[in-house]
Structures are given as C-alpha cells and as structure tokens.
C-alpha cells in the first residue's frame, strides 16, 4: 500500500516543522509549504524524498491554486494541516487597517483558500474509500480574548466559525474537520509578533503610546513568558498527528494546561469573565 499523504502549511519553523518531522517518522509522504529558498533547502537536507516542498504563500491566490493542482495531480490526499499563521499585536484603536487586514488574510482567509485548493485531492481519498481530514490550527485565543491581540483574536475566533461550518458542510462527504486550540507553545511566533508590534508602535503618536503603555508592557511580558515557558512544538505536533490518525477524532482538541484553564474561564458568566480579562489601566 502506498504511504499516506499529508499537506502541512507553514512548515519552516515551530508547530508546522514539528508536524512534518513526526509525519515523516511515521512513514507518511508529506507536502510541506515554505516561502524561501533557505527553508526549502533545510527541508530537503532534513527529510530528503519523504518531503515534497510546496512554495506557497497562503495570501497569494496563484501560489495556492498551483499547489492545489500539483497535490491533486499526484493522487489522493489524506490530511491537510492548516497551520500557517502570524500574530500581529497592537491596540485596536491604532492598528493600521492594512495590518489588521493582513492578520485576517493569513490566519483566516488563507486557511479557507488552501482548504478550497486541497479539497479535490481530499475528495480523491474519499472516493477510494480512504480517510480524509482537515486540521485547522486555531488557538485558545479563539475562545478568550486579551488586550493588544485583537487582530489575532478576530482571526482565531473567526476560524472557529469557519471550522464549524466546514465540519457541517463536509460531514455528508465523510471529510472530518478538526480544530486544534493550543495554549502557549514555544515557537518563533512570539519573537516575530514582538517585531511586528515594534513596527506598528513606531507609527503611533507618543500620547497614544503613553495611554496604552501598561497594556503594551503587559502583553510584552506575557509574550516573553510564553516564548520561554510554552510547551515544546513536538508536544503540539503529537496531538495534531493524533487528530490526523486516530480512528474517531474529537472535533476539537485543546493543547496545554493553560489552554484548559482558559477554556474554563471562557465558560464563566459574561460579567465575571470580562471583569477578569479587562485591562486594569
Ligand atoms: N506558538 C503558540 O503559542 C501558538 C498558540 C496557539 C496557536 N498557534 C498557531 O499555530 C500556528 C503555527 O504557529 P507557530 O507558533 O508554529 O509559529 P511560527 O513558528 O512562527 O510558524 C508560522 C509558520 O507560518 C508560516 N507563514 C506565515 N505567514 C505565511 C503566509 N502568508 N503564507 C504561508 N506561510 C506563512 C511561516 O512561514 P515563514 O517562516 O515563511 O514566515 C511559518 O512557517 C499558527 O496558526 C498559530 O496561530 C500558535
């Protein structure tokens, strides 16, 4: 029997990179998406023929279309891991609209674009009586929101609705949709978010910066803590591989004790919950 085949987007670093490594170790054939020559070469060195690189920017319609055609032409696809994502922190009062739009383009619209492009290959697997699954990498930030990450939360809350509808629509086709909701994972996303925030803050007036200084400092401290104490990416990948392969996957998986705690807070009565999550200054 030929090996199972999976697409993982955002495979250069972090959770996506760890997913590729574990899928390869399990004997799968992996299509891994990256955006640079350097990351393409690194995947080749690490995994050789077990990985086929897709040069894909999830916001670039042409590259998404070409990737979908290539994967579909190669045969059935057993799973898609929609992992590519960014975090662009800034106060919603001042975030440039193009930055907010980019956040949604990458984390939400890009996930749908890639899903649409890969569905013909996933349907091929179903037509041959095999399993086909779509795994969306959401976040606990899709259940509970905190200051300075409004754009990110909008994308991840949006992804919950997207995944719920896809799950409902694809149920008759037997394609399962699974939402992963990690808490903090120690990946480059935190450092990249800090760089993106610094860029946005450089364009904000001194008086606005002063007004949000405590919240900005709180968010920076939280991000540094998450980058240092978050779970290692392979721990997240383990659960994602489970979602892709276990006989009867749950529709949603939380990752990490912080995510489980936040999920409880998200269930509190609204008044109490919003009091707990409001900025103090
Ligand atoms: N780390 C956490 O604590 C955490 C928690 C909850 C959810 N998540 C989610 O987990 C997913 C993976 O994040 P991570 O933590 O592993 O971060 P990461 O190490 O920064 O990886 C993000 C990946 O997404 C890729 N990417 C970014 N923009 C892209 C675009 N326009 N088109 C294609 N690929 C793009 C990056 O590629 P380049 O290297 O080319 O930029 C990189 O491979 C994200 O959806 C994130 O929201 C992470």
Walk me through the topology.
Blueprint: E1 5-8, H1 14-25, E2 29-34, H2 37-47, E3 51-55, H3 61-74, E4 79-82, H4 97-127, E5 133-137, H5 150-170, E6 176-182, H6 189-202, H7 206-211, H8 213-229, H9 233-245, E7 252-255, H10 257-265, H11 270-277
Parallel strand pairs: 1-2, 1-4, 2-3, 4-5, 5-6, 6-7
Helix pairs in contact: 1-9, 3-4, 4-5, 6-8
The structure holds NADP nicotinamide-adenine-dinucleotide phosphate (NAP).
Notes on the protein architecture:
- The structure is a single chain.
- With 281 residues, this protein is of the alpha/beta class.
- The protein has a single domain (5-277), classed as Rossmann fold.
- Helix content is 56%, strand content 12%.
- It is built from eleven helices and seven strands.
- The protein has a seven-stranded parallel beta sheet with strand order 3-2-1-4-5-6-7, with helices on both faces.
- Helix 2 (37-47) links the parallel strand 2 (29-34) and strand 3.
- Helix 1 packs across helix 9 (233-245), helix 3 (61-74) packs parallel to helix 4 (97-127) and helix 6 runs antiparallel to helix 8 (213-229).
- The radius of gyration is 19 Å and the shape is globular.
- The mean pLDDT is 97.
- The structure holds NADP nicotinamide-adenine-dinucleotide phosphate.
- NADP nicotinamide-adenine-dinucleotide phosphate (NAP) is lined by residues 9-16, 35-36, 56-59, 83-86, 106, 137, 139, 182, 184-185, 187-189, 192, 226, 230.
- NADP nicotinamide-adenine-dinucleotide phosphate binds next to helix 1 and helix 6.
């Amino acid at each position: 029997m030929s090996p199972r085949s999976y697409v993982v987007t955002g495979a250069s670093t972090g959770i996506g990179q760890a997913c590729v490594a574990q899928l390869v170790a399990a004997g799968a054939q992996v299509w891994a998406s990256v955006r640079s020559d350097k990351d393409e070469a690194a995947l080749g060195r690490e995994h050789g023929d077990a990985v086929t690189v897709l040069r894909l920017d999830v916001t670039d319609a042409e590259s998404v279309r070409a990737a979908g055609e290539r994967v579909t032409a190669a045969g059935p696809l057993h799973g898609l891991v929609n992992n590519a994502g960014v975090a662009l922190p800034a106060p919603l009062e001042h975030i440039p609209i193009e930055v907010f739009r980019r956040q949604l383009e990458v984390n939400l619209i890009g996930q749908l674009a890639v899903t649409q492009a890969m569905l013909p290959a996933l349907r091929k697997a179903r037509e041959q009586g095999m399993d086909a699954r779509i795994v969306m990498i959401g976040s606990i930030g899709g259940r509970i929101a905190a200051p300075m990450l409004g754009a990110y939360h909008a994308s991840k809350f949006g992804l919950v609705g997207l995944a719920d509808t896809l799950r409902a629509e694809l149920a008759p086709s037997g394609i399962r949709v699974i939402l992963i909701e990690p808490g903090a994972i120690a990946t480059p996303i935190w450092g990249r978010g800090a760089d993106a925030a610094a860029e946005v803050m450089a364009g904000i007036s001194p008086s606005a910066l002063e007004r949000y200084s405590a919240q900005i400092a709180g968010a920076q401290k939280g991000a540094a803590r998450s980058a240092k104490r978050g779970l290692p990416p392979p721990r997240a990948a383990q659960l994602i591989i489970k979602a892709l392969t276990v006989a009867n996957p749950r529709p949603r998986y939380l990752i990490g004790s912080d995510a489980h705690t936040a999920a409880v807070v998200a269930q509190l009565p609204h008044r109490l919950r919003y009091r707990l999550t409001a900025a103090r200054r």
